[in-house]
Specification:
The protein has 353 residues and is an all-alpha fold. The protein is built from 17 helices and 2 strands. Strands 1-2 form a two-stranded antiparallel sheet. Strand 1 and strand 2 form a beta hairpin. Helix 2 packs across helix 13 and helix 11 packs parallel to helix 15. The radius of gyration is 20 Å and the shape is globular. The model has no long low-confidence stretch (mean pLDDT 85).
Length: 353
């Protein structure tokens, strides 16, 4: 088992080493320059065409509204990514990881938008089987580049490795439930499995319907409760900001149960966990957005800004502040979602869990 674990750590260091960090950041920077930073700078325009049109059904061909498509995509990011992912980033890269998470998100807005445009451009309409518009990375390989064999290989890999990514998300839920209520992991897994089965049984329309109701509620509740933790400890806000900025460009010293982290760790884990949180660069975004009704792919791509802004700039930042401002990251040996749970419990007591 130790040999297997060491091998996975070796692969992880190779895949998420310096070259991957540079590649992802460079892609976002190049796309941002090509788009003339429109997704980052035209905030009022972006907001009015996304959150400002939540009730709009949208014109054009598609399966679901743009808002429901965005909620379906956000359901994959809000929760595990910006609760457990941020916790992991801070434990491994130190408080400064937040800065690099935000930097990658800033340029990731263009990356996410580009993925959505590609998903809309190369989607396919499955009329007979389920009457839905679909697209993912394998469709792009086939339809954009004509690489049919490569598309099949990619689809097989996604099918084989997909369940293991679900294991990561499930662990975040089970660890949080155990930390908060002492619920055995097997019980949490059973509940997750049943609720997922019931939701996906109705296809994309039911998934989007459930997510369009669940995501705004859970996001707003988490934001308000997270801000509450920060307000309770408001005197420490200047010190937390100074610690985050200092740790982003200088090694984070060991304190309590925190083993310390280098600047390379801060950059590596900040970028990696940032991408895990907002999916900018993974290609997941095109799956949900390919089904959206819109009169032009670029209009739907504005949700790329909306997702990254809500997911990383707001929720990830709140999570990081709650963990750092309560001192949970160095007073506890917990990782993943359990660490955020501990931070909430330190502010609100057992009900915080």
């Amino acid at each position: 088992m130790k040999a297997i674990t060491d091998f996975f750590y070796l692969m992880d260091d190779f895949m998420w080493g310096s070259w991957m960090t540079i590649l992802i950041l460079a892609t976002g920077i190049i796309l941002s320059i090509c788009f003339k930073f429109r997704y980052q700078m035209k905030i009022a325009f972006n907001f009015s065409n996304t959150y400002g049109k939540i009730s709009s059904i949208g014109e054009g061909e598609g399966t679901i509204s743009g808002f429901r498509a965005a909620c379906t995509a956000l359901a994959n990011t809000i929760g595990t990514g910006n609760i457990s992912g941020v916790a992991t980033a801070i434990v491994s890269g130190g408080p400064g990881a937040l800065v690099w998470m935000l930097i990658s998100a800033f340029f990731g807005m263009s990356t996410k938008a580009c993925e959505i445009i590609i998903g809309q451009r190369y989607r396919e309409h499955y009329k007979e089987s389920m009457n839905e518009y679909v697209c993912d990375r394998s469709f792009v390989l086939k339809n954009a580049f004509g690489w049919k064999k490569g598309a099949v290989i990619l689809a097989v890999f996604c099918f084989v490795f997909g369940p293991w990514t679900c294991c990561v998300q499930t662990e975040a839920v089970t660890s949080s439930m155990f930390e908060a209520f002492g619920v055995p992991s097997i019980i949490s897994v059973i509940v997750i499995g049943l609720t997922c089965l019931i939701t996906i049984w109705g296809g994309l329309k039911r998934i989007s319907s459930v997510m369009s109701k669940a995501v705004p509620i859970m996001a707003m509740m988490y934001i308000l409760m997270g801000l509450g933790v920060i307000i309770i400890n408001w005197r420490s806000i200047p010190d937390v900001i100074a610690l985050i900025l200092k740790s982003a460009f200088n090694p984070a010293s060991a304190v309590g149960g925190f083993a310390g982290a280098t600047v390379r760790d801060a950059i590596q884990y900040g970028v990696a966990r940032g991408i895990y949180s907002n999916d900018a660069g993974t290609g997941y975004g095109m799956i949900a957005h390919a089904s959206a009704k819109t009169d032009h792919p670029v209009r739907q791509s504005l949700w790329g800004w909306g997702e990254v802004f809500l997911d990383t700039f707001i929720i990830c930042t709140i999570t990081a502040f709650t963990i750092i401002i309560t001192g949970s990251y160095y007073t506890s040996e917990a990782t993943s979602g359990a660490l955020t749970t501990i931070a909430f419990k330190s502010a609100y007591g057992s009900i915080g869990g």
